Amino acid sequence: MTHLQAGLSPETLEKAKAELKENPDTLHQDIQEVRDMIITRPDIGFLRTDDAFILRFLRARKFNHFEAFRLLAQYFEYRQQNLDMFKNLKATDPGIKQALKDGFPGVLANLDRYGRKILVLFAANWDQSRYSFVDILRAILLSLESMIEDPELQVNGFVLIIDWSNFTFKQASKLTPSMLRLAIEGLQDSFPARFGGIHFVNQPWYIHALYTVIRPFLKDKTRKRIFMHGNNLNSLHQLLHPEILPSELGGMMPPYDMGTWARTLLDHAYDEEAEYCPESCTLSVQDLERDLEKNLSPRTMKRSQSVVEPGVLKRPDRTKSDEENTQPLLSLD
C-alpha cells in the first residue's frame, strides 16, 4: 500500500483492487501516464495535476488511462466554458448559501451497505424567488468537491435520491432543457464521482416528461442507474434499507434537518445574513441560457440532439392511472 492509499480501510482497499483494478505496485505509473497526456490538450488549462488529484479520476474510470484523462480534461474544460458558474464558488456565496440552507443537497449521516454516501434533494424546497437552478447546481458541485476529498468515497461513490413531493408544475417550468443539459454535463461528464444509483420518488407526470427531454444526453450506464419509484417506497427500500433513511422517505430515522450539511460547510457563517438580489440572479441565468444555446456543440455533448423543444410542458393526451404513473421505468432486478 502506498501513501496515496493511506485513507482506505482494508475492505475498501480490496474493493478498489477487485472493482477498479487499482494496483499499488503500478499506481504512480498509472498516474504519470494520465499526466503525460496533458500535452495533447494545450487548449485547456489544467490547474491541478498532483498525484492525489489525478488518482480520483482514475478511480472514477476504473483505471482506464484514456477515459480518466478525458474526464480530467472535461472537468477543466467545463469550468473554462462556464466561468461565471465558478466565480466565488464558496459556501458563503449568497445564492449557494440559500440553496444549501434549503437542503440542496442534503447529506445523510449513514452510508448505505456498500459504503456510499447518500445525497437527498427535496425538490419542493426550491424557493425560486431567492436563488436559481444554477445556484442549486453550484451548491451540489461545491458539496461534491468537499466530499470527494475522502478517498473512501472516491472508491465507494454516491447515491442520489430526489423526492418530488409537492413539486409544482410552475417550479418544473423553470427546468429548461439548456439548464438540464448544464447539470448533466457538470455531474455526468465532468466530475470524478461514481454514482451507484439515482432514485426518483413521488414524481408527478411532468417529471416523466422532463426525463424524456434529458434522456438522449444520458450515457447508457447512467440510464440503467436511474430508478423511477413513484409512490412505491417499497421498491426504494429494496435498494436502500429504511434503517438509514429519514421518515420522509419511509425510513426509520427522524425527519431530515435541511440545515445539517449547510452547517458543516458554513460553520459559524450559517446564521449570518447576506444580501442577495434575485433580479440580478435571474438576469445571469438568462445570459447563461443564451450562452449555452450558442456554445454547446455536438462535440461537447457527444449525444443525440433529438430532444423535446423548449417550451411549456403539456400533459400527455393519453390518460394514465396514478398506479401506472408510479411504476418504475427500469427494472429493479
Automatic annotation (TrEMBL):
Positions in coiled-coil regions: none
Localization annotation: Cytoplasmic vesicle, Clathrin-coated vesicle; Early endosome membrane; Golgi apparatus, trans-Golgi network membrane
Keywords: Cytoplasmic vesicle, Endosome, Golgi apparatus, Lipid-binding, Membrane
Membrane topology listed for this record: Peripheral membrane protein
Region of interest (Disordered), ranges: 295-333
Gene Ontology CC terms, in alphabetical order: clathrin-coated vesicle; early endosome membrane; trans-Golgi network
Gene Ontology BP terms: lysosome organization
GO molecular function (one): phosphatidylinositol bisphosphate binding
Pfam families: CRAL_TRIO, CRAL_TRIO_N
Biased composition (Basic and acidic residues): 312-323
Annotated CRAL-TRIO domain residues: 96-257
InterPro entries according to UniProt: CRAL-TRIO_dom, CRAL-TRIO_dom_sf, CRAL/TRIO_N_dom, CRAL/TRIO_N_dom_sf
Chain's role: Required for normal morphology of late endosomes and/or lysosomes in neurons. Binds phosphatidylinositol 3,5-bisphosphate (PtdIns(3,5)P2).
Protein name, per record: Clavesin-2
Taxonomic lineage of the native organism: Eukaryota, Metazoa, Chordata, Craniata, Vertebrata
